[in-house]
Amino acid sequence: MEHIQKLTDSDTADHAHYDKTVKMGTTPVLRLIFSMSLPAMFSMFIQSMYNIVDSIYVSQIGMEALTAISLAFPLQTLMIAVAVGTGVGVNSLVSRRLGEGRYDEASSAATHGVVLAFFSWIIFAILGVFLTRPFFEMFSDKPIVISMGCDYVYIVMIFSFGVFIQIVLEKTLQATGNMIYPMFFQLTGAITNIILDPILIFGLYGVPELGVKGAAIATVIGQIFALIFSIIVVVTKKHSVKISLKGFRFNGRTIKEIYTVGLPSIIMQSIGSLLVGSLNAILATFSEAAVSVLGVYYKLQSFVFMPVFGLTQGVMPIMGYNFGARNKKRLLDALKFGCIIASIIMAIGTAVLMLFPENLLMIFNASDELIEIGIPALRIISLCFMGAALGIMFSTLFQALGAGIYSLIVSALRQLVIILPVAYVLSKAGLIYVWYSFPIAEVVSFIISISLFKRLYNLKIKNLGCY
Length: 467
Known about the structure:
Blueprint: H1 9-13, H2 15-18, H3 29-59, H4 63-99, H5 103-139, H6 143-158, H7 161-175, H8 180-202, H9 212-236, H10 252-284, H11 288-324, H12 328-355, H13 357-362, H14 368-381, H15 385-400, H16 404-427, H17 431-434, H18 437-461
Helix pairs in contact: 3-8, 3-11, 4-5, 4-6, 4-7, 4-10, 4-11, 5-6, 5-7, 5-10, 6-9, 7-9, 8-9, 10-11, 10-16, 11-12, 11-14, 11-15, 12-15, 15-16, 15-18, 16-18
């Protein structure tokens, strides 16, 4: 992997011939968003399918297994937060440098991203070994739940190198305007996981029955296959950046610029992990079924949120490129169209959760108690979807312009300052009221997002050129 992407000096002279980033400054914005976002939205939809498949199969083992997977969710979220946050930082920096025509610096950012991803994996592998059991013992006193949870998390954290490095390679290609290969990377992992899940969990075709361990093994094998595919693509295909580890040295300024955007993104998503863990603690005071409902909700809402996150993967490099190129109109058009498309997706998701909550819960072999708690929970929480659509797009703009701290502020307000205290207070009135903390937090955070956008507009957007 000494020279992941070959780009000779003669190739550089002919850069404009194959530089796919040019389209981000010339193609009509709506058409460009669709061409760049649809592959990511499709792959994220498949990604959400494999997220939910784990829980569907595991629920067939029993309620304890579903509870274990639900309790493991915050740890997985934390791991993905670091992987995606680092990738977002790389994506933002690479797209801005390409928009400015600084190709060597874009390549340096991409190389730094791969190295940072490797070190992130080492840290999480160590944490997985030492912190997994104490974590589960905080939330459950049932030996079977603790045992199943540990079996699952040990595997997905210790062998997580695939997801860390693959995500950075994926985000790097997206920053160059290439959305097709990243789609296939994600599809490779998702489809592999979906195929292997029933085989390894239930012991089909002569394979030993592994239960929850099988779900974890299927997940990491899918991630490793996706990584192998991504390495093959960046080695054999031409791209606008090169990744070379030969003579690599850390550059403090590059790391700082990556994490100026990436660290707020990591913290934002890590806050999500803290949120789920804290909500689990509140819900555990009512019943394990309440904890399982929250876990089921997060699996179901991924079908709605994942396509929107796929949309942001297409929109962010467009925003970053046109900000770097000082094209105000295209930057704001990307925001406008992104908000409209995200709102349509979220409206559909709201309607589905409002109309068919029982049908959705039955997918998970739901008990009577799970259905009784889950139906009002899904309907109430779905009220937050429309506000979330706009909030996500504003956060994407903040990150694309290098103002990731704004996204962090909004996320912290939504998930710590507002939702947790509100959920705790409302829990005193009864379980059903806990779910109202979601829409309440979304309304407040949306108002803050509008305020921060106005400030950012005056600081960074207002005086951009309009050509």
